[in-house]
Design a protein that fits this description.
ten-stranded mixed sheet, 27 helices, 40% helix, globular
Length: 889
């Protein structure tokens, strides 16, 4: 941590006691009940609890049928003749209890995704055994057990794998598919002998059976939630390393295990570090990292068998930029953190999902900072917090702890509030408590709740008891209410002395004509770090309401949110803002970045004119840090998107090119530094963006280098391949487009295939865009990338109407290929490509996306996003154009 963020955590000595709380204060805090199974939200009755499952599956990779039989040991808490559990797309065979003593009739409810087993006589209180024969389906979309067809040098092959979060274990076998119902799972699969099966636990036995099949029996798991179950079957290979008695495996399709060395090495050192940090050793005998060449786009923290989209896990020095290791390490660190936060200790219901995702995101960045400090992961990851702040300032935001009615709403909780705000809050609380006390609290929490469920209140209790500070009031003000704090900071001179007045408001980004008055007021307990630029920081304070504090000599530049650790925006009065701009070059990079991001946010909120932000850009040096220029790049990209089809666009593009080209010229196309440095990442970002902005020189150079690459692949460094290919794609003619598709089709390397397919999808030519859209209906593309390809046609390809017409015309076919998330998530998100009321009305009237409560949540978010964009088009674009005309660079 740099000096600007290092400050003592004692009480502020010269603080107006009536206005500001000391660090240890917790006014307004309230005790909350900890985890209680009976009071946990959920849809299933809690009269019957599963204790263990013995599941035997016989997947047919050709027909995609999934026959199975399971024996479930249950605890009946009160006599009942009806047992309700979850099932989707499942045909039931014979169902009985207690070795056939009673048989059940099965009634399915498609809407609630449940099956009710009705017995003639009630099952008495106590333990019983259910035996259920069933046939489920192997899907072609990434939910439940699904198939993945992938190219190899020997032709197209198929594997099956699973993705169950939040509620898709019910697609594989009937079960109590809610996180509070923890049980052990003993899996047996019958598969062809030439295939490898990977589950949560090691294989305990394997024996041949009839024909060319074999029966593979896995050891039972510890108690865990159903969504953490995993099964992967295919022509796979497995490389392993030993890490303190735990076998870490790298599972890939044939011939690719050599690309997993970095992943294996990373997992081994992370396991040792996490064992120490959490104070509870990883409890399973093995941990597999499974590379899946399709089906889903991220990773899933199945206990003992984490699945990854292949390009997120494997590193091929022949095709990957060296900087790709940053993302690979980060996602491994995130998913492995879940082995404790999420798997060992699981949130009781999806309203506390942030306990999983916020902590895993925080821990991943903390681990990256620990092992690779040169990556400056907190600084370079600033965009995660900024994204959360932007969404959290809207009417459709939600508290980190939010009510979740059903599985469709649970899907919507996997958003930037849960992940990114959660991560930012945890970082702020760790800084507030101190690193060692915070870790002591985490260890206490893990020890107390291992193999069980917990709530947010359980975490606060553990942190308070170990850290010596009561933090519930601070934390609750950020977790139990939505919204972003705004700290308004103004300096006044009293003779030669200066005083700083702080007051908090709610920061709001609203559609044109709306404002903060439409939203309820909020009050937070905010840890605030303050100090003079280049001087010794003041003590940290806890702001609740307002405060006035001594702030050095008159005219000193006083920075609020030193180190950019706090989760809030800052608006400075004119005196202090002027002093800060004068001191801008002397600030630590984190503080320069904080000033710039808050300045643009104030423009978006209508609290400042665009001129205030644009004038700030004149203070930037071309040699400033990557993160500073990345923020500028993202702002120019947003203005370029908003101005599509508007008269301001040519001038905005010219201005952006004039600002960014000198930065690229300073870096050069062929840097002399490490292939894994921030300059390499900034260079690639500049090339892509300047191409989007129509920089003729950059476009010509990109085409020249790509032509040389086609003759000699070594002519184009890996670090430039994505950026150069992108520029070639958006400017492609038919020959260039066909060439990109040919490169994609001949490659068996996932990240290469994605590079060329997405570059082709970005073509601005409308006829080429139509060809790309038609391609998404074929079997050529991995289903995983179909939504991304359609979105790329709309965004990079600048053909949103063409893509929307296509989605509507082929919605049923796309839904069948993509599953319910296409209806509930993709369509609303896609429509944010538009900025006008007419398309908002079309989304509002699009019945499929409003058919579930989760879909309605997503539609509401997108409608607000479109309205905000429309307001920015009307308010910001003309002001930007006026400023550029009088302040040409």
């Amino acid at each position: 941590m740099n000096n600007s963020a290092s400050h003592p955590r004692t009480a502020l000595r010269h603080l107006a006691a009536a206005a500001v709380l000391l660090l240890a204060a917790t006014a307004g805090a309230r005790a909350e009940p900890t985890f209680s199974f009976d009071s946990t939200p959920g849809k299933l009755p809690k009269t019957v609890i599963p204790l263990s499952y013995a599941v035997e599956l016989t997947p047919d990779l050709a027909s995609l049928a999934l026959p199975g039989v399971e024996t479930v040991e249950i605890e009946v808490r009160e006599p009942t003749a009806r047992v309700t559990l979850n099932a989707v797309d499942t045909t039931f065979g014979e169902v009985s209890a207690d070795n056939g003593a009673q048989r059940a009739q099965v009634a399915l409810d498609v809407a609630t995704q449940t099956a009710t087993l009705a017995f003639a006589q009630p099952l008495a209180a106590g333990r019983h055994t259910l035996r259920i024969a069933f046939t489920a389906a192997i899907n072609k979309f990434g939910a439940g057990l699904f198939s993945v067809d992938y190219p190899t040098k020997a032709g197209v092959k198929r594997l099956i794998t699973s993705k169950l979060e939040p509620a898709d274990a019910r697609r594989i076998f009937p079960c109590w598919d809610e996180p509070a119902f923890k049980a052990s799972f003993a899996l047996t699969v019958v598969i062809p002998r030439n295939l490898l099966a990977v589950g949560n636990m090691p294989v305990s036995s394997e024996q041949p059976v009839a024909g060319d099949l074999k029966k593979v029996v896995f050891a039972p798991t510890p108690k865990m939630s159903s969504y953490l179950f995993v099964l992967t079957v295919g022509e796979l290979e497995r490389a392993t390393v030993d890490a303190g008695g735990v076998t870490i495996g790298l599972v890939t399709t044939e011939g690719k295990s050599g690309q997993g060395r970095f992943a294996l090495d990373s997992a081994a050192k992370l396991l040792a570090w996490y064992n120490d940090y959490f104070g509870v050793k990883y409890p399973l005998p093995k941990l597999d990292l499974i590379a899946v060449p399709g089906g889903f786009g991220g990773a899933m923290e199945n206990w003992g068998g984490i699945t990854f989209f292949e390009s997120r896990l494997l590193f091929d020095p022949a095709t990957n930029a060296e900087t790709a290791k940053r993302g690979i390490f980060g996602i491994i660190a995130h998913e492995m953190a879940h082995m404790w936060f999420g798997d060992l200790v699981t949130m009781a219901w999806w309203d506390n999902l942030w306990l999983n995702e916020g902590f895993a995101s925080w821990m991943a960045t903390k681990a990256s900072q620990q092992f690779y400090p040169q990556w400056q992961s907190w600084l370079n990851g600033y965009g995660a917090k900024q994204f959360a702040l932007s969404l959290d300032a809207r009417r459709t935001s939600h508290p980190i702890q939010q009510p979740i009615a059903d599985h469709s709403e649970a899907v919507t909780a996997f958003d930037a509030i849960t992940y990114n705000k959660g991560q930012a809050l945890i970082r702020m609380l760790e800084n507030y408590l101190g690193e060692q006390p915070f870790r002591d609290g985490i260890r206490k929490y893990m020890a107390e709740h291992a193999y069980g469920n917990s709530t947010t209140a359980d975490l606060w209790q553990a942190l308070e008891s170990a850290g010596g500070k009561r933090i519930t009031g601070v934390a609750a003000s950020f977790t139990e209410q939505d919204g972003v704090p705004l700290v308004v900071a103004e300096t006044e001179c009293d003779g030669t002395a200066q005083r700083l007045t702080l007051r908090q408001e709610r920061f709001v980004i609203a559609p044109l004509g709306a404002g903060a008055a439409e939203l309820p007021a909020r009050n937070w307990q905010i840890p605030v770090a303050i100090g003079p630029v280049g001087g010794k920081p003041f003590d940290e304070i806890l702001l609740q309401g307002s405060a006035t504090i001594p702030a050095g000599a008159c005219g000193d530049a006083i920075k609020v949110n030193l180190g950019d650790i706090g989760y809030f925006r800052v608006e400075y009065g004119p005196k202090n803002r002027g002093a800060l701009l004068s001191a801008f070059p002397r600030m630590q990079v984190e503080d320069r970045l904080n000033i710039i991001t808050d300045s643009w946010a104030l423009v978006l909120a209508g609290r400042a004119e665009p001129s205030s932000y644009l004038a700030l850009l004149d203070a930037l040096d071309t040699g400033d840090h990557r993160t500073v220029w990345d923020q500028v790049i993202s702002t120019f990209a947003a203005l370029n998107r908003l101005s599509r089809g508007h008269p301001e666009r040519p001038l905005i593009q010219a201005y952006a090119r004039a600002k960014l080209r000198p930065v690229l010229d300073r870096l050069g196309w062929d840097g002399s530094g490490s292939a894994d440095d921030d300059n390499a990442l900034l260079r690639a970002s500049l090339i892509s963006t300047l191409g989007d902005l129509g920089d003729d020189v950059v476009i010509a150079e990109a085409k020249r280098r790509f032509a040389a690459f086609l003759l000699d692949p070594d002519a184009l460094p890996n670090s430039l391949r994505d950026a150069v290919t992108h520029v070639v794609g958006i400017t492609a003619d038919r020959a260039g487009y066909d060439g990109l598709l040919a490169l994609a089709r001949k490659s068996t390397v996932t990240n290469e295939r994605l590079r060329y397919y997405f570059a082709a999808a970005g073509a601005h030519d409308s006829e080429l865009a139509r060809m790309t859209l038609a391609l998404t209906l074929t079997s050529e593309l991995p289903d995983t990338i179909v939504p991304g390809m359609i979105s790329t046609v709309a965004s990079s390809g600048e053909q949103p109407q063409l893509a929307w017409d296509f989605v509507q015309a082929h919605f049923d076919a796309l839904l069948a290929k993509q599953g319910p998330n296409f209806r509930d998530q993709f369509v609303p998100n896609f429509m944010t490509n538009f900025t006008d009321e007419a398309h908002a009305a079309e989304l509002a009237a699009f019945a499929p996306s409003r058919s579930t409560s989760g879909g309605r949540v997503m539609v509401a978010r997108s409608l607000e996003s479109i309205a905000i964009s429309a307001g920015l088009v009307a308010r910001v674009l003309p002001a930007v154009e006026d400023w550029i005309r009088t302040h040409r660079p």
